[in-house]
Design goal:
Length: 836
C-alpha cells in the first residue's frame, strides 16, 4: 500500500447554479458513465476486505455558516494499489452536527462498477488492465442543508495475477480449495429436477432418472438467464447449467449392484442405467448472501437421455449408414451416450460429444464377432476401427425382455447383423448413430438435439471453437480420445457474422455454420510446424490393407464422415497420446490440447515423435508398479498461421508436461514442476471467460486431471495457470528410458518453464474421483467444477466400507453415504474473481 501524496480535497458551496441549460452536470455525467455496468454485479459481500485501511486524514472545515457548518471530512481512506479482479473497498468518513448522506462516484480511469455507491463504504472489482492504471473516486458527504464536502482517493490497478496460495496434494475425502474460498455442493447424482419427483434416497431404490440428475457428471457450461427468463449472456445470478452424464458407477445405482435373472437384465435396472446417461439442463440461482441453489421445478429443466429423440443434420443425414428399424430413412435416432467434453457457441447453444460409445453394443457370442458372415469386408474394417468388435455390451441392456411389446429401447444395443436380416429389421447400423457431436438449445426444450455429421464420427471428446472473427470462417477443434488417435479441426463453409449471435432460432444458426464445411486432421512436424490435412473425398487415398483388414476404398464424402478414423489413417495423421479437451485463449487465439497419457504398448520407446516425445517409467503405489510410456501426459498448444481459423498450417509447442516432481529427472519433468504444481494426466481444460478479468489480457487456464498414475500421491486435482505464448520456450533433447534399461533420444519443443507464479494447484477432489467440467458465471465470481465418480471401484457390488462418502463428507466428518458425482460452486469469500 502506498501513501498518497496527491489527495484532492474540496467542497461545493452549493450556490453556483448559474447554468440554466439542460446539460447534465459533470457529476451526473460521471455517474451515468460509471453506473452503467452496476447491473452486472450483485450480492456484494458484507465481508469484503478493505484493502485500503483508514489512514485518517485531516480535513478542512470551510464552512461559511457557523450555525450550520459543512460536513467535516474525516477520511476517504488512503490511496493504494491492487490488481485486476480483486475487490477494493472505499471508506469514506465524515461528521456533522446533523444527519449526512454519502455518495461515491468514479472520476477517472477504466470504468469500475461501484457497489453501495450511496454508502460511506463502497466497493468495486478492479477492472481488467494491461498495464498499471490509475482510477480515482470522489466521496461526497452532504448534510441536511444540502451542503457537500468532498474528497478523492486514487487506486492504481495492475494487471491480473493469481491471488491464492497453492494448496497441497492430499487424499482427503473432500473438495479442498485455497484459504478464502467457499465450496457449495450443487446438483448431485439423482437429485430431482422436476416438480413432484421425490428426493433421492441414495440407497439404490430410486427410479425415474429421466427426471433426475444423471451419473458421472462431465463437461458443464453456464447459460445465463435474465430475471424475466430470456437468454442473457451476461447474467451471473440466474442461469441454466448444462452438464454431460458420461457413464455409471453402476455398483451404487442399485440396492447392491446390477443383477441378472436367468442371464437377462431386469428391465427396471437397465432403464435406470440408460436414463442415468445423457445430458441435464438445470436452473441455478444465486440467492441472498451468495447462497447458490438449483431450482427443482424450473420449467427450463430438461433431461436428454439415450432414449430422447434426436435428428441428424449435415451430409450423413438420410444415408444408408444411419438406417435402422427406428429410422428407416436414416434421418433420426434415439439419444446420445457417453457424453464427455463439450463445446458452446456464440449463438447460445451447447455441443455435447459422444466419446466411448462403442462398448455399449453387443457384437459377440463368447468372444468372437459372430455376425461376420452377415457383414461385408468393408463393414468389418470399419467396425474394428471403432472398437465395435467382440463386446458383450457394457451393461447387457440388450438382454432385457421388455414388458411392452414392440419396445425396442433395449434390443437396439444388440448390433449383430442377423441371418437374412437387414438394416430395417435388426440393429446392425445402430452403432453408426453414435460417435457424433450433438448440438442442443438449452433455452428451448421443445427442440430435438441435432447430430452434426459434418464434424465427423470419432470417439469425440469435445468440440471447442477457435476465436470468432467477423467475416472469417469458424474453426471447431475436435479430440478423438483413445490412445494413438488423432486431432481434428472442422472449418465452417460460412463466415462468421456477429448478427447471428443473438438470433432466436439458435439451432437454425447451428445449421448455417455446422452442417457444411471442411474436416481436417493434424500432422505435427518435428520442426514445430504442422499441417491440417483435409479429409475431402477425392483427396484422401485408400486406406491400405493391414492385418485382417482389406484395403478400404472410400465411396464418397459421407463414407469419410462416418469412418473418419479410417480417413485419418489414410492421410498419415499424427498418432497422439489420447487427445482430450481443447481450449482457446481468447486473447491470442491459440489452441491448447490435453494429451492425457499413453502406454508402452501403443507408444513404445521407438514410437515417440516431437509432439508425443516421452517414454519413461513412473512407478506407482507401495509395490512400485511400473508404468512405462507417457503415464503423466502433456498439454500441446498451436497457433494458426496468420491467426486465421481456416489456416491449413500452424506452429506448435508443448506448453506443459505432467510429472511427479519428487521422483523424476529433467528428461521427464521437462516443465520444471514443483511440489506446489505437479500433476498427471491433464484432461479437462478451459480458459476463463473473456467477460471478466480472469479471461482478459493474460487469461487463466484451468487444468483438470483424470489420473491413475499419480494417485499414489494425491487425489485428482485442478490447477490454474497463466500461460505465455507458443514458442516461448526452447528446443530440448531428452533421453527416454524403456523397460530393461533401453534408452533413446527425442527432440521436442517445450514451452517456458512453469513457475510457482504461473502454475498453482487450486483444488484437490475427494477419494476416487476425476475432476471434469469447469466454467464460471460471466462475472468470474462463481466457479463451477464437476466432481465425477467419487468412490469409484472396479467391482459391481457396493464396497464395504465405502471408499468415499462424498459429497456428504464435505459438510463434516464420518457420514456414511454412498458417493455421488456432483457439481460444486466455488466462491471467493471477499466477492472477487475466483483465482485472482
Ligand atoms: Fe471421457 Fe476422454 O474422457
Ligand atoms: Ca474427459
Ligand atoms: Ca509416481
Amino acid at each position: 500500500m502506498t501513501e498518497s501524496t496527491d489527495l484532492a480535497f474540496g467542497y461545493s458551496d452549493g450556490d453556483v447554479d448559474t447554468n440554466n441549460t439542460a446539460n447534465p452536470t459533470l457529476n451526473a455525467l460521471i455517474e451515468q458513465r460509471y453506473s452503467r455496468r452496476d447491473a452486472l454485479r450483485s450480492g456484494a459481500s458484507a465481508a469484503t476486505v478493505a484493502v485500503f485501511g483508514g489512514g485518517v486524514l485531516a480535513a478542512c472545515d470551510n464552512a461559511s455558516d457557523a450555525a450550520d457548518p459543512f460536513p467535516n471530512l474525516v477520511s476517504v481512506g488512503s490511496s493504494g494499489a491492487t490488481s485486476s479482479g480483486r475487490v477494493v473497498t472505499l471508506t469514506g468518513e465524515a461528521t456533522d452536527s446533523g444527519a449526512i448522506t454519502s455518495a461515491w462516484v468514479q472520476t477517472s480511469g477504466p470504468a469500475a462498477a461501484l457497489i453501495g455507491a450511496n454508502t460511506p463504504n463502497a466497493s468495486f472489482i478492479a477492472p481488467s488492465v494491461s498495464a498499471p492504471t490509475g482510477l480515482t473516486f470522489q466521496y461526497s458527504a452532504t448534510d441536511s442543508a444540502g451542503q457537500t464536502t468532498q474528497g478523492s482517493v486514487a487506486v492504481t490497478v495492475s494487471p491480473a495475477v493469481m491471488g491464492f496460495t497453492s494448496i497441497a496434494k492430499n487424499k482427503n475425502d473432500v473438495v479442498t480449495v485455497p484459504a478464502g474460498y467457499t465450496v457449495t455442493v450443487m446438483t448431485r447424482l439423482g437429485d430431482p429436477i422436476a416438480a413432484g419427483v421425490a428426493a433421492y434416497k441414495n440407497d439404490g431404490t430410486d427410479t425415474n432418472f429421466a427426471q433426475r440428475i444423471g451419473d458421472h457428471g462431465d463437461a458443464l457450461y453456464w447459460y445465463g438467464l435474465a430475471a424475466a427468463g430470456a437468454r442473457d449472456d451476461n447474467s451471473s445470478v440466474r442461469g441454466l447449467m448444462v452438464q454431460n452424464h458420461e457413464n455409471l458407477n453402476v455398483q451404487y445405482l442399485h440396492p447392491n449392484g446390477p443383477t441378472t435373472v436367468g442371464g437377462a437384465r431386469p428391465e427396471a435396472e437397465a432403464l435406470k442405467e440408460i436414463e442415468a446417461h445423457g445430458v441435464s439442463v438445470t436452473e441455478y440461482v444465486e440467492g441472498a448472501n451468495r447462497a447458490w441453489t438449483y431450482v427443482q421445478n424450473s420449467t427450463f429443466n430438461r433431461r436428454i437421455t439415450p432414449n430422447t429423440e434426436v435428428v441428424f443434420n449435415g451430409p450423413v443425414k438420410g444415408s444408408a449408414w444411419l438406417r435402422t428399424p427406428f429410422s428407416t430413412d436414416g434421418t433420426k435416432g434415439r439419444g446420445t451416450i457417453n457424453n464427455c467434453a463439450n463445446g458452446h457457441t456464440l449463438w447460445g447453444t451447447n455441443i455435447t460429444c459422444e466419446e466411448n460409445w462403442a462398448g455399449y453394443f453387443r457384437r459377440d457370442n463368447s468372444g468372437a464377432e459372430t455376425d461376420n458372415a452377415q457383414r461385408t469386408a468393408r463393414e468389418l474394417v470399419a467396425l474394428r476401427r471403432y472398437g465395435v468388435t467382440a463386446n458383450a455390451g457394457s451393461y447387457g441392456w440388450h438382454t432385457v425382455t421388455p414388458s411392452t411389446a414392440g419396445d425396442t429401447r433395449f434390443a437396439r444395443w444388440d448390433a449383430r447383423a442377423t441371418v437374412g436380416g437387414s438394416a430395417a429389421t435388426d440393429w446392425r447400423n445402430e452403432p453408426n448413430q453414435f460417435g457424433w457431436c450433438v448440438e442442443l438449445d438449452p433455452y428451448d426444450k421443445t427442440q430435438a438435439p441435432r447430430k452434426r455429421t459434418a464434424l465427423g464420427r470419432l470417439g469425440h471428446e469435445g468440440a471447442w471453437h477457435g476465436k470468432f472473427i467477423e467475416g472469417k470462417k469458424l474453426a471447431v477443434y475436435l479430440g478423438d480420445d483413445s490412445r494413438g488417435e488423432y486431432f481434428y479441426k472442422f472449418v465452417t463453409a460460412a463466415s462468421w457474422t456477429a448478427a447471428d449471435a443473438q438470433r432466436a432460432d439458435r439451432l437454425a444458426v447451428g445449421d448455417k455454420y455446422l452442417d457444411s464445411g471442411t474436416l481436417y486432421v493434424a500432422k505435427f512436424n518435428a520442426n514445430g510446424t504442422g499441417t491440417w490435412v483435409p479429409l475431402t473425398f477425392g483427396q484422401v487415398p485408400n486406406r491400405p490393407a493391414q492385418g485382417s483388414d482389406v484395403e478400404y476404398v472410400f465411396e464418397d464424402q459421407i463414407d469419410i464422415l462416418v469412418n473418419t478414423r479410417l480417413a485419418g489413417d489414410a492421410v498419415g495423421a499424427t498418432k497422439m497420446d489420447r487427445p482430450e479437451w481443447t481450449a482457446t485463449n481468447n486473447v491470442t487465439g491459440e489452441i491448447y490440447l490435453t494429451l492425457t497419457n499413453n502406454n508402452a504398448t501403443v507408444r513404445p520407446l521407438a514410437g515417440t515423435d516431437a509432439a508425443n516425445p516421452r517414454h519413461y517409467n513412473d512407478p506407482t503405489g507401495p509395490a512400485n508398479t511400473a508404468q512405462f510410456g507417457n503415464p503423466n501426459g502433456h498439454i500441446l498448444r498451436l497457433r494458426e498461421n496468420a491467426d486465421d481459423p481456416a489456416a491449413t498450417g500452424f506452429t506448435w509447442d508443448i506448453y506443459l508436461f505432467g510429472a511427479d516432481s519428487a521422483d523424476s529427472n529433467s528428461d521427464v519433468n521437462i516443465s520444471g514442476l514443483t511440489a506446489a504444481n505437479d500433476f498427471s494426466s491433464p484432461d479437462g481444460l478451459w480458459f476463463s471467460r473473456p467477460q471478466n478479468a480472469g479471461g482478459l489480457v493474460k487469461p487463466l487456464l484451468w487444468i483438470q486431471t483424470d489420473d491413475g498414475a499419480f494417485t499414489d500421491r494425491t487425489n485428482n486435482q485442478m490447477l490454474v495457470a497463466m500461460p505465455g505464448t507458443t514458442g516461448d520456450g526452447a528446443s530440448v533433447t531428452i533421453t527416454n528410458r524403456g523397460s530393461g534399461g533401453a534408452t533413446a533420444t527425442q527432440t521436442t519443443r517445450r514451452g517456458a518453464l512453469a513457475t510457482d507464479a504461473t502454475l498453482k494447484r487450486f483444488l484437490v477432489g475427494p477419494v476416487g474421483c476425476e475432476i471434469t467440467g469447469v466454467d464460471t458465471t460471466p462475472d468470474g465470481r462463481t466457479l463451477f467444477v464437476g466432481i465425477q465418480h467419487p468412490g469409484e471401484t472396479s467391482g459391481t457390488t457396493v464396497p464395504s466400507p465405502l471408499p468415499s462418502n462424498w459429497p456428504a463428507s464435505q459438510a463434516g466428518p464420518a457420514p456414511t453415504s454412498r458417493p455421488r458425482s456432483a457439481i460444486v460452486a466455488i466462491t471467493k469469500n471477499d466477492g472477487g474473481v475466483v483465482g485472482l
